[in-house]
C-alpha cells in the first residue's frame, strides 16, 4: 500500500509522515508531494518518495499520484485559490485510481459561518461527487496558532480577540497528524466525518494559560471584529488575512470552532494535547 501526503514539506504534512512511520509504514511506501524538493531533502534521505507537484498544475499532480492507494489531501494555504487547487488534486486522484482520500477540512464545515469554511464545504461536496471513498477530517484550531500571542501577552498583559465567551476546541498539530495517520492506516473510515477538537477553552481561560506561560498576569480584551482586524493590521498582518482571523474569532463567539465529539481522542487513543503544553513549545 502506498500512501501520499500533499503539502508534505509543511508542518502538518511532516508530522503526518512521522506518525505514519511510527505506525509501521515503511518510508518507501510513503509519497511526499511537495512544491520544492529541496525543502524535503531530509524526507528523501530517510527513504520517502519525494515527488514535486504544484496544486495549480494538474499534469504534475497526476504524475505525483501515480501508483498511490491512499491520499491525505492537506488543504491548500492560499485562501481564495483552494477550491480550484483541490479540484485539480481530486481530478488527478480519479485519473490515477487513488482508492481513498482523507481531507483536512474545518470544524462544522457544512454549517460554519466562517469565511474559511466556504472552500472547505465546496471541497467536501467535490469529494462526495467524485466517487472516491473518502473521510473528512474536520480539524479544529491548532494551539500553535496562538504562538504569536505569547510575546504580545508578555509585553501588554493582554490577549486581544473577538471571541466573546465562546469556546475554541483546540489541539496540537501533532494530534491532528496522528488522527490523519490513524485514518490512513486502518480500515472502516470510508464515508466518515470526524469533528476533531480537544481541550475547550474560552479566551478568558486561554489568557490564564498565557499568563502561566509568560509569568505575568494576562487578561482577555474582547473587541469588535473590525477593531480587532485593525489591531492585527497594525501589527503587520496583511489586511485580507487580518479580516479572516478576525472573522474566525467572531465565529468562535458563536461556537463555530467548538466540539465535544471526542472523535480526536478516539482516533489517536490518548488525550489531546492541552494548550499549556502546545503554545510556545
UniProtKB/TrEMBL annotation:
Origin superkingdom: Bacteria
Domain NmrA-like intervals: 2-246
Listed name of the protein: SDR family oxidoreductase
Species of origin: Rhodococcus pyridinivorans
Classification of source organism: Bacteria, Bacillati, Actinomycetota, Actinomycetes, Mycobacteriales
Amino acid at each position: 500500500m502506498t500512501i501520499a501526503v500533499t503539502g508534505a514539506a509543511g508542518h502538518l504534512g511532516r508530522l503526518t509522515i512521522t506518525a505514519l512511520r511510527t505506525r509501521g509504514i515503511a518510508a518507501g511506501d510513503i509519497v511526499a508531494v511537495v512544491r520544492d524538493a529541496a525543502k524535503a531533502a531530509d524526507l528523501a534521505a530517510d527513504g520517502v518518495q519525494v515527488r514535486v507537484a504544484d496544486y495549480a498544475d494538474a499534469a504534475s499532480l497526476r504524475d505525483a499520484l501515480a501508483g498511490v492507494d491512499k491520499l491525505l489531501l492537506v488543504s491548500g494555504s492560499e485562501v481564495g485559490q483552494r477550491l480550484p487547487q483541490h479540484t485539480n488534486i481530486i481530478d488527478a486522484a480519479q485519473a490515477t485510481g487513488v482508492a481513498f482520500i482523507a481531507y483536512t477540512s474545518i470544524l462544522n464545515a457544512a454549517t460554519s459561518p466562517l469565511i474559511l469554511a466556504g472552500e472547505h464545504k465546496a471541497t467536501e461536496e467535490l469529494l462526495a461527487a467524485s466517487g472516491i471513498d473518502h473521510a473528512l477530517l474536520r480539524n479544529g484550531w491548532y494551539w500553535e496558532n496562538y504562538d504569536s500571542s505569547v510575546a504580545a501577552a508578555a509585553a501588554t498583559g493582554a490577549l486581544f480577540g473577538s471571541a466573546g465567551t465562546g469556546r475554541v476546541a483546540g489541539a496540537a498539530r501533532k494530534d491532528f497528524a496522528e488522527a490523519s495517520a490513524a485514518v490512513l492506516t486502518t480500515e472502516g473510515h470510508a464515508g466518515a466525518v470526524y469533528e476533531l477538537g480537544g481541550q475547550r477553552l474560552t479566551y478568558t481561560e486561554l489568557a490564564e494559560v498565557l499568563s502561566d506561560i509568560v509569568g505575568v498576569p494576562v487578561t482577555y480584551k474582547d473587541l469588535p471584529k473590525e477593531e480587532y482586524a485593525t489591531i492585527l493590521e497594525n501589527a503587520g498582518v496583511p489586511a485580507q488575512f487580518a479580516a479572516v482571523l478576525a472573522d474566525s474569532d467572531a465565529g468562535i463567539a458563536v461556537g463555530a470552532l467548538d466540539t465535544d465529539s471526542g472523535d480526536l481522542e478516539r482516533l489517536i487513543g490518548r488525550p489531546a494535547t492541552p494548550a499549556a503544553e502546545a503554545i510556545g513549545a
